[in-house]
UniProtKB/TrEMBL annotation:
Keywords: Calcium, Hydrolase, Metal-binding, Signal. SUPFAM superfamilies: Alkaline phosphatase-like. The lineage of its organism: Bacteria, Pseudomonadati, Lentisphaerota, Lentisphaeria, Lentisphaerales. It comes from Lentisphaera araneosa HTCC2155. This is Iduronate-2-sulfatase. The keyword Transmembrane helix does not apply. Transmembrane segments: none annotated.
């Protein structure tokens, strides 16, 4: 009897040791994730066909990953967009439709990408702006907060240079840019990149989920002078020249962007455009440093890399500036996912959404599925085993409860549902949205179908 008991205890001990070893092996074999979100990054990138921008590091990442050419943010404003993609829920579900509320206070107990990965054996770390708010609940999601910080001397250097301010009458309408003689790390994104690069090279016993939130190219556009010197502002693409004769409802435009257009001079218009390009190149340089750190640490082949913009931004498209609009320039975002472990398609031109990121990473890292997520995994699209993962994408704004439905070819915008301010664009034949087809009798059935899809997501239709 004693022999049987000893044998039983021995078997239990061996089984426990085996399970522990198996769990440790599974954790170590899971891929790391680097999750980079850039504030107000639109599709002015080489990988997206812009021939003027200098973005070699992002383009290099794109060359080894999948470029999603028609990705949509769910809300073209920082706070609602980030609350949405970090939770995998639509803005109407999170209840966050402005920059004010915190996701964790609005939705207590909500599962987010870092909390879910942390609960499944990942070390979690972040630097910079990932959520729009930093509060005590958010901090518990991260094992490490890697913000680099800058010294008084660095801030002094960063405060030099030629400054231009376009005064549109309100701090949120204005535009400012400056070209200081300073180092990359004298500014927040560069300091954070330096801190994160050092952390990547430290040995870890578990896989990691690392979120890097670049503050740029959000205004004010302050980056080292050397990035401005990469460009001749007169030779850059000037989008606004396409829209000189455009007539669209004023309610389709953001007030801030319209006010800035009214205040800006022709020279300042070129200067602001130039500053954005310079700032994109600055962010690109930080991406390159992070990828080099990953390579130096020997982790490149076991690390999924994601890069995207939280929302787009207008640089004169539709004679408007900024975001919080439902046109392509604001609602469409760059999205690149590189998975070194699998052969993936180079480009995917069907519609996808940022809420798809959470379920995609869950599947790629072989974590348990979360049924409450409202996005769809993109892994089948990346692997080339699914022609289309969804038929439409949705975006919305708080202003007048506006919304947009986009298919692979069409975009329907209802900028003011109470007054039925509708715009319809054929993006296959009119990618710059110059010809509003809402009054085309041949499109009545299409408009009705897209309206019904909007209703299904809780959007208002008169």
């Amino acid at each position: 009897m004693q022999t049987n008991n000893r044998m039983h205890k021995l078997l239990i001990t061996l089984a426990t040791m085996l399970l522990t070893a198996l769990n440790a092996f599974c954790e170590q074999s899971r891929p790391n994730v680097i999750f980079m979100v850039s504030d107000d990054l639109n599709c002015y990138l080489g990988a997206y066909g812009n021939k003027d921008v200098i973005s070699p590091n992002i383009d290099k990442l794109a060359a080894r990953g999948t470029v999603f050419t028609n990705a949509a943010c769910q809300f073209p404003v920082c706070g609602p967009s980030r609350s949405s993609f970090m939770s995998g829920l639509r803005p109407n579900t999170t209840g966050i439709i402005s920059n004010g509320p915190s996701l964790y206070k609005t939705q207590p107990g909500v599962k987010t990408i870092p909390s879910y990965f942390k609960n499944h054996g990942y070390v979690t770390a972040r630097a910079g702006k990932v959520f729009n708010h930093i509060d005590n609940n958010e901090k518990t999601d991260w094992d490490f907060i890697l913000d680099g910080g800058t010294s008084p001397e660095a801030r002094k250097r960063a405060n030099t240079g030629n400054e231009v301010l376009v005064d549109a009458g309100h701090i949120h309408w204005n535009a400012m840019w400056r070209d200081p003689e300073c180092r990359d790390e004298d500014l927040a994104d560069g300091a954070n990149t330096l801190s994160v690069s050092k952390w990547i090279k430290k040995k870890k016993d578990k896989p990691f989920f690392l979120a890097m939130g670049f503050l740029k190219p959000h205004r004010p556009l302050i980056v080292p002078k050397k990035y401005y010197e990469l460009y001749d502002p007169k030779k850059l693409y000037h989008s606004w020249s396409r829209y000189a004769n455009e007539v669209i409802p004023a309610t389709a435009k953001n007030t801030a962007g319209s006010k800035l257009e009214e205040a800006i001079t022709a020279e300042q218009r070129m200067g602001l455009n130039h500053a954005y390009y310079a700032t994109v190149s600055y962010v690109d340089a930080q991406v390159g440093k992070l990828m080099q750190a990953l390579d130096d640490a020997g982790l490149k082949e076991n690390t999924i890399v994601v890069l995207f913009g939280d929302n787009g931004t207008h640089l004169g498209e539709h004679l408007c500036w900024g975001k919080n609009m439902l046109f392509e320039a604001s609602a469409r975002v760059p999205l690149i996912i590189a998975d070194p472990a699998n052969k993936t398609v180079k480009s995917y031109d069907k519609v996808v959404e940022l809420i798809d990121l959470f379920p995609t990473l869950i599947e790629m890292c072989e974590l348990p599925q979360l049924d409450e997520l409202e996005g769809t995994s993109l892994q089948a699209a990346m692997n080339g085993t699914a022609d289309s993962v969804k038929a439409v994408s949705f975006s919305q704004v708080q202003v007048r409860d506006g919304w947009s439905v986009r298919t692979d070819r069409w975009r329907l915008i209802n900028a003011d549902p109470a007054n039925q301010t509708l715009l319809l664009y054929d993006l296959k034949n009119d990618p710059h949205e110059l010809n509003n087809q809402i009054n085309n009798p041949e499109r009545i059935a299409l408009v009705s179908k897209l309206k019904n899809l909007a209703i299904s997501k809780g959007f208002k239709v008169k």
